[in-house]
Every structure is written in C-alpha cells, then in structure tokens.
Write a structure and sequence with these properties.
- The protein has 215 residues and is an alpha/beta fold.
- It is 33% helix and 31% strand.
- Strand 2 and strand 3 form a beta hairpin.
- Helix 1 crosses helix 9.
- It starts with a strand and ends with a helix.
- The protein binds phosphoribosyl ATP (PRT) and magnesium ion.
- Phosphoribosyl ATP binds next to helix 1, helix 3, strand 9 and helix 7.
C-alpha cells in the first residue's frame, strides 16, 4: 500500500470529520486539539493526517503534500480550486456568507447601483463578485479576523463574513443585511493522486458519501 495523507484543520471541521473518517474505518491515534503534533497517525499504518490552518488545506492538497483534504467553500472559492477535484459536499461546518453593517446604518441607501462602499473582509473574491453583480463599487479592506470590529471603529461601512448562530453579530451591535451564499465543507482530492491512488481513495469517497446520506 502507498502512503495516503489527509489534510484537516482543527476545530469545527475536525470534530465533524471524525464520524466520516470512522465510516471509512479510519481512527486517528491522537486528538489534534490536545496534541501538539502536526502529523497524526491512524489505525492504518499507511494513512496519516496533517493538521494545518483551515485556509491552508487547499494549498497542501493542490501541491500533493496531502492527497485529500476537507475545506470550507469560503476557503475554496478564495483559493480558486486549481489542481483540486471536489467530489463531495460533506454538509458539515454549515454557515452563511453575509453582508453585515452597524445597527442603524442605512444599507439600502448606501449600497445602490453606482454607489461606493467600503467593505472589510477575509473573503475579497466573494465580496468583490457579490458587489460587482449589484453594480456597487467597493473598496475592499482585507482583514485576517475579527471583521466585526471594522464598522464599529469606522474602518469600513460593511463587512462580508460567515454567520452561523448570529450571536457574534448581535454581541457587537451589527445586523446582517444580505445573504450572499450558503457555505458547507467539501472533500477535496489532488487530481494526480486520484489517478495514481484511485484504489485507496475511491473507497474513502464512497464511505463518506454513504455516511452523509445516512445522517
Ligand atoms: O482560525 P483560522 O484562521 O485558522 O481559520 P478559520 O477561522 O477559517 O478556521 P475555523 O476552524 O474557525 O473555520 C473553518 C471553517 O468552518 C470555515 O472555513 C467555514 O467554512 C466553517 N465555518 C462554519 C465557520 C463558521 N461556521 C463560523 N461561524 N467559520 C467561521 N465562523 C466564524 C465567523 O467568521 C464569525 O467570526 O464564527 C463567527 C460567527 O459565528 P456565530 O455563531 O456567532 O454567528
Ligand atoms: Mg477561526
């Protein structure tokens, strides 16, 4: 058997991936939340997990440093998907990409066709496409986290961010004003690896697919 490497991020994706791995008969030897190891073995000698930042998963898979990975659609859209085969929507780590503003900000009036709006986001590609379709000119301010702060301190008029429960927006006196798209995570496979290691990868895709159907 050739070695097989799966790239995963800690946190919500890892938690929701465990049952899928189990359905494919793969059990990690350690919990990445408590272990400091970045390479984690499994009950299969030839299958290992590499633990990387959520936004780095597509890069590891694109270059073949990992054969498989799981990444949010937000991350995949921003990455562009080069070199990746995306066989399955896993229906995990679900949330919504939204536009949000400070409570009381008149969004309708500020975001009409032809208007100019400043938007802080970790997702410049998604934000640019959304506003360009509306005919709104945007100045994108790229941030790496805590977007919710930007409208509160006058850095931007609006933010484009992920929302799941809505409690982060609420706690910061922001309101969601537009739904851009639903987000879940996809299984991604390196295109070359899919051909070279088909006999090992195909059963994992199948096991994930039936586990999703049953849940
Ligand atoms: O932290 P790091 O920079 O490593 O990456 P990350 O923050 O992207 O990783 P992680 O593990 O937090 O998220 C991994 C993936 O989970 C994302 O790429 C999304 O596809 C998905 N996901 C699902 C979410 C959320 N739900 C979510 N709520 N990712 C982020 N959030 C954040 C959101 O940005 C906001 O700050 O949670 C906050 C809002 O949550 P609510 O529940 O208060 O609405
Ligand atoms: Mg995070």
């Amino acid at each position: 058997m050739t070695d097989l490497t799966i790239a995963l991020s800690k946190g919500r994706i890892f938690e929701e991936t465990l049952p899928l791995l189990a359905a494919a008969g793969i059990i990690p030897n350690e919990n990445p939340e408590s272990s400091r190891k970045l390479i984690i073995g499994t009950n299969h000698e030839h299958i290992k997990l590499v633990i990387v930042r959520a936004s780095d998963v597509p890069t590891y898979v694109q270059y073949g440093a990992a054969d498989l990975g799981i990444a949010g659609k937000d991350v995949l859209i921003e990455h562009g998907g080069h070199g990746l085969y995306q066989p399955l929507d896993l229906n995990i780590a679900k949330c919504k990409m939204m536009v949000a503003v400070k409570n009381g900000f008149n969004y309708e009036q500020s975001a009409h066709a032809g208007a100019r709006l400043s938007v802080a986001t970790k997702y410049p590609k998604i934000a640019r496409e959304h506003f360009s379709a509306k005919g709104v000119h945007v100045d994108i301010i790229k941030l790496y986290g805590s977007m919710e702060l930007a409208p509160l301190v006058g850095l931007s008029d609006a933010i484009v961010d992920l929302v799941s429960t809505g409690s982060t927006l609420k706690a910061n006196n922001l309101v969601a004003v537009e739904h851009i798209q639903d987000i879940a995570s996809n299984l991604i496979v390196n295109k070359a690896a899919l051909k070279l290691k088909y006999n090992q990868i195909e059963p994992i895709i199948d096991a994930f697919a039936s586990a999703i159907k049953e849940s």
